[in-house]
Amino acid sequence: MAPPLPQEAQPLDRSSWVPLHHQLQLALRALIDGGALVPGDALPGELRLCEQYGVSRTVVRQSLVDLEHAGLIERAKGRGTFVAQPRPPQGLVQSLTGQFEDMASLGLPLVSRVRRLELVPADPPVAAALDVANSSDVVLLERLRLVDGEPWVLVSTYLHADLMPALRDFDLERGSLYALMASLGQRPAQGRRIIEARHGSSDVTRALGVAPTAPLLLLSSVGYRADGHPVEHFRAYHRGDRSRFEVHLAHDDPGALTPLLTLNPVRPPPPT
Fold first, then answer.
1. pTM, full prediction
2. Where does the chain have alpha helices with state H?
3. Can you tell me the distance from the alpha carbon of 123 to that of 16, in angstroms, rounded to the nearest whole number?
4. In angstroms, what CA-CA distances link 38 with 28, 29, 41, 115, 172?
């Protein structure tokens, strides 16, 4: 049985227009944000929370659902509810920083393990992304990125072949690829990124340390120099339980906006 919360339960304001489930969510979130509850700590059961805060089980369940959707708690069937490990946030569309820079800005140690660095023939999707002929040589750089020693994302990056000498001489395990590309005048200045929910191959799931059926987030990107020339294409499989993407929105000319969400077409079944 989980212990009671690490402070006296404060009564909720029943005269407030703020719904009780949201007040309870804020109270629990304050304990997590303030460090009274840390990742791995068990939360009291639903009945205990009902008693401590004087609310119904429906209120407690809605609060826990909201906290789970926010990535702050995790539920383990038959074991209980626990404070979740923090998920490193990543900007999806608003900036072209690299993961090394993103994690450094958050004070999180990012380490890469280089799994492959070689010249490979470009398949049609890679050739189209980099604007090269099919089967021409391109660099494949495959890295497993770890945060605090835990696998987080598996990235396959494709680059033009003339970058290979500089890549071989660079510390790709602890350095920023974008910093190297900037020094060579090849850093992306603009790009297009697409995110999809996918299951990974057995190689991907083993590398990330997740179950074969675990949901993954696949981020695909093409990066262009300021002159419009494509210089980078990558496919990054993110652990769904350790990643979230943030999109910063601003009102602009509605007529100039393009949709951020599209639906893949439903393909008809193959003829029998």
1. 0.60
2. 20-33, 46-53, 57-69, 99-105, 124-130, 164-168, 177-183, 202-208
3. 60
4. 12, 11, 6, 33, 33
Q: Which of 179, 173, 175, 178 is nearest to 114 (CA)?
A: 173
**At a CB cut-off of 8 Å and minimum separation 6, what does 110 contact?**
99, 100, 103, 104, 145, 146, 147
C-alpha 43, offset from chain centre: 25
Query: 84 — alpha (psi -120 to 50), left (phi > 0) or beta?
Result: beta
Say how far apart CA 93 and CA 33 lie, in whole Å: 27
Whole-number Cα distances in Å, 180 to 195, 222, 234: 25, 17, 16
Confidence of residue 225 (pLDDT cuts 50, 70, 90): confident
